[in-house]
Structures are given as C-alpha cells and as structure tokens.
Amino acid sequence: MVVLIHHQNKVVAVKNGEESLPISAHKNIAKQLLKLAKEFPQEWIYWCEETQKSNLNTADFPKIFHHQKMIQSFGSTSFLGDFIGYVEDSPFVKIKRKAHYPTWQLSALVGGLHAELLNSVAKTMPLDQDFDYFLNSLGKLVMPLGVFCYSNPSLLVKNPNDTPKRASYYEIFRFVKQHYKMRWVFLLLLNSIYFRKKFPILPFIFGLFYKRRSLSPELLDSIPLVSSNKIEIPFDVDVVIPTIGRSNYLKDVIDDLAKQSLLPKKVIIVEQNPDKGSKSDLIDFLNKQWPFQIQHIFIHQTGACNARNVALKEVTADWVFLADDDIRMGRTFLKLVSKQLDAIQAEAVTVSCLQEHEDETNSHPIQWKSFGSGCSIVSTKTLKDICFDMGFEHGFGEDADFGMQLRNRGVDIVYLPNPRL
Q: Model pTM?
C-alpha cells in the first residue's frame, strides 16, 4: 500500500507500508502520483493531507477499494463549491457527505486509486499544479468512461477537522471552459451577476483562452471491472409490473419471463382500472400453469406510483425487478444481469431499454445520473422506508426522485448497456 502525504499543495512524505520512499525534487503532487504509479504498477495508491495521516481507515481499504476501475475520496466540502450547480444539474453535484455517494468531485483531503488507472491516462491527462484541480478534472473526465467515482466518509476513522480549500473565480471559469461546452462559460457569468451580484469579468475573459479537455474512450478498456468482494448469495428476484389496459403487451412480458434460463421467484402484477364495476381480463391467462408464483392485485386507483408502492410491499425475494408492462427480453436476460451484479457488486442497476430503431451509445457500465422505474433491478434490503413519491403521481419525475432516495442512502445506480431490454 503506497501512501502519498501532502500539505499546502506539496508532497511531504511517501510511504510504502512502513518504508519511506524518496520524494521527487519537483513540487507537483500529480507528477509525484504518476511517478509512483509507474514504479508500483500493480499497487493501490492513496493520498492524504498531513493532518489526516493518523485518521486513515486503512484496515477497511481492501474492502472499500474492491475493483481497479474506481476512485474514492472524501472531503468535508467541494473544491468547486456550489458554483458548479449553475453549470451542471446532475445528482453528482450536491454530495450527501454522510453517505457513500457517487460523484466526480474528488477531494485532496484523502483518497485513492489503482496505479493501472493512472498509467492508462498518463500520456493524455494534464498534470495541474493544484492537486484539487487535477483530481476534479480527472474525475470529470474518467467518470463517463466507466470509472466509478465516490465520496466516501469511511476512508477516515472519524470526521475530519479540516480547513476547506475553495477554487478561485479564475479556477472555476477555467474548469467550466475545459470540461463543458462554451455556452456554459457565458451562463456562469450571467448567473454570477444575477444571483451573486458578482462581476467576475477578468476570470471570464481568462477562462476563454483555455482549451477543452477530453480523454479517448478506449483508454480504460483494458482495466478489469471485477470486484474482489464476493458475497455468495443466490440470485432470487421478484418482478413488479404495474399495468393498465395493455393486456396483450403484458402477456408477452409474462411469456418472456417464463422462458428465462434463471427464473424469477414471483411476479407481482398490479392491474388498475378506474371503473368501480370493472373486472380483470387477465384472470384466464394468469390462471395457467407458470414456472413461478404470480400474485395478481386488481385495484381501481390509477397511477404508476401507487401501483409500484402496492407491489413493493409484497416483495419477499432478495432482489426486485421493476419492470414495465411492454418490455421484451431475451431468455438469458436475468442470468446475465445476475452475473453483472456479482462482478460489480452493485445494489441497483438500470438496464438499457431501447426501441428497435435506437442505438446504444454506451459500451461499458457507468454510474447513472437517472433511474428507470420500468427497467431496473434493485437489492430489496436497500428499499426499506423508500417508496415512489405520490406527489409525482400522473406526472413525471418519480423515477428520478426514487433514484435520489437510493443515492442519499449510499446506493449507487449503475447503468448496464448489456444485456438489453
């Protein structure tokens, strides 16, 4: 385990276990980090502020850093502050500090990554003098390429008593110009003037002269995404399907589930019809012999939020597949998803669900900024006291809100481009 200790943007010590390693003459922390990655290509490399060196939770590091395609860090504040909220509206901006939370905003206070990841981007990643700026730039560039980035308070034994470091106006405008489209530089200026009553004209002008940064998508393809944390729990799943007036489509979904090489434990169907005197037209179809239990709930209250909440109360399996009533799936779908869950050790995944004429743009699993309430599989234990907010009923946004409830509990949502629905 290689640990780089720094203070006031300078390296003060490098440890390989109990052994002290020589410090390079240059003061750039990012360069020193890259040098260590080349010297120890099979090691995890960690960094911490000098004030936190006795606060590191090194005993749990092997469990926390469980696959090579991840970066984890922790700080009590964000280097870019809340100004980045004027530019980006993803859930990765406002960090839940008490939770294991997905975000590209990395902290110099404490963190770690595998040497192979650093070596993969060494030739194209600019090594900024400011270590906080370098880490945030690295996180912003590699997260869309399939690197899992987190803020994790478990890296430290106790809460840090650190002095927050914040980016200057010059650094903020520079960051926006280097990582977003040009229009956001102008919008940041307008928002600063309108909402903050600040007029950062010089930072805005200087920011315009920087070039946008990017990394080639294939740079990280060679890094394995296989977790060292293995939990031998059989994959059993209940399927939740709300439906209203689409019996022909639903029958196709049930038929597809019956053909699965790995069968679900139970299928919970919540059928809605607002007519108080109506009866279900699914009775004869569902009364056939099926290779799983079917629990059919017929209600007169319409709305997907309520229907899914009713069904979630009936889930007894370790996993729940939140499905729409008009999807189609191949016979190996559930088996392939179970393998992905095991490899990544994810607790919630949203699966690619495209129409026939649409093309998948992702080639690898990524941390997802949304949530699909009709194409996701979630660990049941994470759903305690979580439900679809009835305030969104008959509208839009309930799935995004449900995803945020999960993230705020420390559950990351991973998007799987394969297998597809």
A: 0.92
